[in-house]
Specification:
The protein is of the alpha+beta class and about 400 residues long. The chain has 9 helices and 16 strands. Helix content is about 25%, strand content about 30%.
């Protein structure tokens, strides 16, 4: 069935609501962390697809940071780039409220939950603060006497929050050492493109994994006026694909193919900084009166990672150390530390739009310009993509697509 749209020039007048300076500070901090985490994850997964929610990871760790003290807090503050944010936790509350604002046009929700061992004593002020600032309610569970039942309870909640896209988050071995606290953060997003791709235009085409290998993909196609920018000095094309109401957008960073056989995505990753990213995707710097012939693959990416070692290498070491962690802002009982942090993400990009489900879980334990001609944007080789919440300028999801498995 054909769809009819308003003249696309009308949607160009939609602008994101400016966030407060304080909110901008937190957004910048989260974006700095996003790129740092991207690089760290890429270092251990250079050849594969990758997808994660930096906001989910930041929010989950911020709940730990709330209870961290001493060197543990200093390390977390540095890695998470919180040092320049005056009141991290109250700004997270504002950010969460903005993201969770009801909409009749899309689904976007961020949820937090604490699961605490029923026999363990947590400081009332910590629980009050997590509830007030992160809307994270504590549910008492029996990790000691019924670890498997507790694990299933947590996994069921995660499935419900992610529309059954994230299953079996916690594996049996993760609870066998009887954690004292499990912190769970979930982000679920589903939205339609402002300008749909027509299914009848999708065709199988080769996707160039590298200069020597190609694999078939279902390539979507649409010619329309999209926000676009070509950056010759960085051999890069940038495309914005807005979702309905323009509150969220997907950005594609597509490096030009090289002539010498080198990996253009690795070059882009090595040059990428937050200031460059903000400049490249600034609406004032992008052409909006240009017809773009867009070729974009349909793709799904499922990505799961234990972030403990990654964060340790980034400088967040003591919080994972049994004898080094200082989480006395959570409990007066000694010995609490993060035993594991698990992050699992799913993204599905198709003609209609995008569906994303992400969860981050932390286990805490003790004792262990205008152009008239059409521009061609052909994403038939590896690229970076991210989804931005425009009202707060926050990167919700970040990843790369190196091709079909």
């Amino acid at each position: 069935m054909s769809r009819h749209y308003l003249n696309p020039t009308f949607w160009l007048v939609f602008v994101a609501v400016s966030s407060s300076p304080a909110m901008e500070g937190l957004s910048r901090a989260n974006s700095l962390f996003a790129l740092d985490l991207y690089r760290a994850l890429s270092a251990s997964n250079a050849e594969g697809n990758m997808f994660f929610s930096p906001l989910s990871v930041s929010a989950a760790l911020a709940m730990v940071y709330l209870g961290a003290r001493g060197d543990t807090a200093k390390e977390m503050e540095k890695v998470l780039s919180f040092s320049s944010v005056s009141d991290v936790h109250s700004h997270f509350e504002s950010l969460t409220s903005s993201i969770n604002s009801p909409s009749a046009f899309y689904i976007l929700k961020l949820a937090n939950r604490l699961y605490g061992e029923k026999t363990f004593s947590f400081l009332p002020e910590y629980l009050e603060s997590t509830l007030k600032l992160y809307h994270a309610e504590l549910q008492a569970v029996d990790f000691i006497g019924a670890a498997e039942d507790s694990r299933k309870l947590i996994n069921t909640w995660v499935e419900e929050q992610t529309e059954n896209k994230i299953k079996d988050l916690l594996k049996p071995e993760m609870v066998k050492y009887k954690p004292r606290l499990v912190l769970v953060n979930v982000i679920y997003f589903k939205n339609d493109w402002m300008l749909y791709f027509e299914a009848k235009d999708t065709q199988e085409m080769p996707f160039k994994i590298n200069q020597n290998e190609s694999r078939p993909v279902e390539m979507m196609y649409k010619e329309e006026r999209f926000p676009f920018r070509s950056i010759p000095e960085h051999d890069l094309q940038v495309l914005e694909l807005p979702y309905r109401k323009y509150e969220l957008s997907m950005f594609i960073l597509l490096p030009n193919e090289t002539q010498d056989g080198s990996d253009p995505l690795l070059k882009l990753e090595s040059e990428l900084t937050l200031d460059k990213l903000l400049d490249w995707t600034d609406s004032d710097n992008m052409s909006t009166w240009i017809d773009v012939k867009v070729y974009l693959p349909k793709f799904k990416v499922e990505f799961e990672s234990s972030l403990s070692d990654t964060l340790h290498r980034m400088g967040m070491s003591s919080v994972f150390g049994e004898s080094k962690a200082d989480l006395t802002g959570m409990s007066s009982q000694d010995g609490l530390f993060i035993s594991e942090m698990v992050h699992k993400a799913f993204v599905n990009v198709n003609e209609e739009g995008t569906e994303v489900a992400v969860t981050g879980t932390i286990l805490v334990t003790d004792g262990w310009d205008v152009v008239t001609a059409s521009q061609i944007f052909r994403a038939d080789h590896p690229f970076i993509f991210f989804i931005r919440h425009n009202p707060t300028n926050s990167i919700l999801f970040l990843g790369r697509f190196r091709g079909p498995s």
